[in-house]
User: Fold Amino acid/amide ABC transporter ATP-binding protein 2, HAAT family from Roseivivax sediminis.
Amino acid sequence: MYISDAMQLEVDGLTSGYGGITVLEGLTLAVAEGELVGILGHNGMGKTTLMRSLIGAVPARAGRLSFMGTDITNLPPHRRNQLGIGYVPQGREIIKGLSVKENLLLGQAAHRGASEYDRTLALFPELVELLERPGSRLSGGQQQLLALARCLMGRPRLLLLDEPTEGIQPSIVSDIAQKLRHLRSELGLTIIVVEQNLDFLCSIADRSIVLRGGRIVADLRGAAVPDRDEIEQHLLINA
Ligand SMILES: Nc1ncnc2c1ncn2[C@@H]1O[C@H](COP(=O)(O)OP(=O)(O)OP(=O)(O)O)[C@@H](O)[C@H]1O
Assistant:
């Protein structure tokens, strides 16, 4: 898989939080175009806050964020999305009262321009026979595919995923891993994925970051799959 030398995302000294609580404290991270980065950490360590800070839902209190050379530190979420940052939140947020097709078209409604519908369905042939089915009648795995497809309707360059395997049957988890690998190679996407499922993460990531107390305490890079034992050690040390 091609990974560029150029940094697509640069986070420099990011501090953010809620009300009187500081969650991320001077976090610094650079992600190259085409990289697939896993974010690990125990509950409450700031993984979702990092995702929400990257999309602009949680403002930076200090530090600087840059995406594809543009300073996005003070840009609102819709502008960051237009620049190419896509987000699939924890819990997926499928609109259950709408059909698969309607959910997909919502992903496009946020963007003006050429239709992504046919291109997206070509990447997700599993959804073709489900197009008229309401979101409420999808399995967890189908919902995750729909959430990914809906996000891709906005043509992101960077895909942020928060716990994509949560609540998904173990037998389907490998399908999600395969889909992410496929999307990355077909579209050259950069992917940052928050995960608790180590097996899943080790099967897809070429770099793993461990968060603790709002800081990065391990940044394990490998040309291929990261070392599961090493990651586990960092998680244990940080428990
Ligand atoms: N909207 C909010 N208002 C106030 N505090 C919040 C809010 N969201 C999260 N927090 C707090 O911020 C801290 C970090 O939460 P965050 O959700 O980023 O952690 P996480 O690593 O993603 O955890 P989990 O694995 O449980 O999702 C926690 O102490 C949490 O209680």
